[in-house]
């Protein structure tokens, strides 16, 4: 194995899901729903498979999906992207992120990101031979914030891009207009690109301080931003791995150049089905959000009753909690012991930080599960 990949073992998600299977635990570790997405989408996929759409689709993605992504970006975020040349379909958001970094970073270039960061970020940055410059999110009064001076200090002459995930996994933070403006101003000052991971764009809860705002919609940012999302979260089909990248023609063309040699194309018959899902009425998106908000409330209450210090998320389908009130001092030890102690799997957020002290006592639970599963997990955790 090449040196730059040696620090990376098995992903924490695979590791914790395997632990859940091995111990028969309730799995609130890896973030995937346990119910299917819209029936019209599933039917459309079956129809596409039986309708002969089983060969290589066009490189940028099937036209009806690119058209549907374009309409979605316009309807929800007021952003205009031409389906021909400004939208690329990828193998999930994961490939879009990797291809963007590989397309834009020379070896030695720096990537500013917020930690805790989604685990593929560090690996994709390393694959490109680039260097990550994390800015730490810290919990204060129940909210995760960063120090603006630390953000500024992370930028420098080698900064090539900022990789921003909002709504943010694992904290559930939704970046405010002011925070986004700080990021945008630094991108302009240092002439950096932005790559935005917005896979939880439709999961900002009604009591959040701010709605979701794509960084690309800030003045001057559209021209320097690759905006990424995926069907996996919004349509509960994480196994389909259909994602996309939108941006100005030169950036999407660069990302496409790389993507074509990573996977060439992906999942032909699933693409028209995602197009159908994206055309869902507004009520679909509202109900999806409201359902997850109820689940958030259900799990947050249960975790609080079980003794955790809960950091209530404003978005995503994850909640982080501090284990200190339960006598825990190290999230990794806590999560490895949890299946034995009570038959529940969670993820230690420490593994998403370079500064491990910042996340040492935090663990993450996923609440994208049926109510009875959440209730069973809480009943078990209350035995701690
Ligand atoms: N980014 C974040 C923040 C995520 O939580 C996930 C989780 N699945 C992904 C990217 C990957 O998305 P996909 O499955 O579409 O590759
Ligand atoms: N995004 C999901 C999570 O954060 C899992 C994705 C994965 O397993 N790679 O749990």
From TrEMBL:
The record ties this protein, via Gene3D superfamilies, to:
Aspartate Aminotransferase, domain 1, Type I PLP-dependent aspartate aminotransferase-like (Major domain)
Its required cofactor(s), as named, are: pyridoxal 5'-phosphate
The answer on whether this UniProt entry bears the keyword Transferase reads yes
Keyword terms, alphabetized:
Aminotransferase, Pyridoxal phosphate, Transferase
Q: Does the keyword Metal-binding apply?
A: no
A cellular-component GO term for this protein: cytoplasm
Q: GO MF terms on file?
A: kynurenine-oxoglutarate transaminase activity; pyridoxal phosphate binding
Domain Aminotransferase class I/classII large intervals: 26-381
Which InterPro entries does this chain map to? Aminotransferase_I/II_large, Kynurenine-oxoglutarate_AT, PyrdxlP-dep_Trfase, PyrdxlP-dep_Trfase_major, PyrdxlP-dep_Trfase_small
> Which NCBIfam families does the protein's record reference?
PRK07777.1
Q: Which family does it belong to?
A: Belongs to the class-I pyridoxal-phosphate-dependent aminotransferase family.
- Write the protein's name: Aminotransferase
UniProt source species: Dactylosporangium sucinum
